[in-house]
Amino acid sequence: MFDLVARMLDVDDPYITERLVGAAFGAASVHQMPDPDGPFEHSLQAWLDQLRGHFLDGGTTPTSHEQLREYVRAAYEFAANLHPAAVPDGVDPLALTFATTAPAPEMDDDDPHAEECARTFGMDFENYVIGAAINGRDNYQFDHPAYRKARAEVMARIWELGWREADFGTVEEAIVMRTGRYSGMRAPVERYGKKYGWIAYHEMVGRLVDAGRAPAPFGGSPRQMPDIDPSFPTVPPVAPMPLPEWAPKERTDSRSWLTSGMVELPEALWSPQEIHQVEGGWLLAEGYLEHRLAGRTVFGFFRTLLLDGADVEPARQLISEQSYLGNEFFPSLPTIRDVLAAEMPWSPRLAVRFDDDDPSAVPHRALRRDWQDDGIRFGQLAVEFGWESTSETGLGGAYDVPSYEFADQFKLRQLLGTVDLVSLDGRRAAAVVRAVKPWRGHMLFLRRDLVECFAGNRTIMQVAWGEREVAVDWHAAPAWVRDAQRSHANLWRHVRTLETNQRSSET
Asked: Cis link prior to 438 (omega < 30° from 0)?
């Protein structure tokens, strides 16, 4: 495949080039297993040489297209982390230098073609897309000097790419008419003007990056991620084990059920012996599960805490004393964004930096009575992978996945087309599953032997908590429903600690 793509790198269409380089990265990313001096490693090295010859310093096809350059960076980072022998000599794969591009032309508002080019922008493209790339600009601040320059560059490039209303106007209007019903969604056919506008935008962003002014709206990551994950990850499979029927079908008294209904957690859910034909024991590491039936709902969160031995009983006592376990008493997992599924689990971009004093870092996780309490610190096994592509190739939501530290310790690799991980012998090590009606949710299971090894001298504590709910008219809810909520009598919890000899204690 690399040879075919390499022959097309000189095509006179930045959109095609960007998609081809992205597809090549997606194809490469499935080869995560070691291949020392093997055919893939040789092929990858030849491909990286092609990327260097076209786009890196001294290359024949300079580009500032930031999405394309992100794919190039990802390819080199992939090689550096998993196939270092494939990195060409003289290239720092983690600090690429791209070929210098010529200064961009600008189109002033009084240019005879300005109005024609501006009509390609569509609703709010100028403010929310171009404008958001300009650091220090206020929303709808159309007189910001850097914004005016960026907009002028985008319009000039649209014209240079070949936009002419006389050539595309009729077909453009037909596309809009046929895709109008997809408002707010990805249309099956995009406008020509939109294509040219996005090419011009991403090239403008690359120039900002080169000038040290990478866009970082709302304090977020300056990384400009593409709208398609080229590894085409599939939605996780349905949970292979029976799920607990928390919301009973029987016509029991709803008033008593709301405060004392049984919420069972079978051992086959806490710690299944087998998943995906892999035996030896697993642990439910993280997740969320909701069961809704006949006007009753039970939901629950699952957390795994790694505690120092001296903190186990104080943590258990603190959990039992809390009348309400929500509002981040159990801190949520750190969320990883701006990372492709294709970069899981090898990319250091998945690593989380903990620092209580740095607002750009993640605070250490701890159980606290209140915000003034120093709390009981604990370790975790996972992160929330928050890729939210609107593309049909995206996962369609967030899932809990093993942390970078966990995957790195055991040299885990991604299972082709999934967010599951395997060890170097090909044996599955992590399994992400989802629930379907009348359940909803997702869960992360990890092989128990790996969790115990990762925990070391720390104690593994599995926690589950949630609430029972009944369907009522909330404009005239019965007093007993309000009382149960105010007193948190509808809340349930389970806590258990695990020992490495397979014993467990539960409260």
From this structure: yes
Q: Please, what is the average pLDDT of the chain?
A: 90
pLDDT value at 389 more than 70: no
Predicted TM-score of the model (pTM):
0.90
299: its two tokens? 């939901």
Contact 75, 47 (CB under 8 A): yes
Helix axes 66-82, 14-29, angle to 10 degrees: 20
Here the tokens at position 395 are: 């996962």
DSSP 8-state secondary structure symbol assigned to residue 256 = H
d(CA 107, CA 112): 9
What pLDDT digit, counting tens, does each position of 62-106 carry?
A: 999 999 999 999 999 999 999 999 999 999 999 999 999 999 999
Phi, psi of 453 (to 5 degrees): -65, -45
**Cβ-based neighbours of 241, under 8 Å, separated by 6 or more:** 268, 269, 272, 275
Q: Each residue of 155-166: pLDDT tens digit?
A: 999 999 999 999
Contacts of 131 (CB under 8 A, 6+ apart): 137, 139, 140, 141, 142, 144, 147
Please tell me the distance from the alpha carbon of residue 428 to that of residue 411, in angstroms, as a whole number.
Answer: 12
The number of beta carbons lying within 10 Å of the beta carbon of residue 216 is: 13
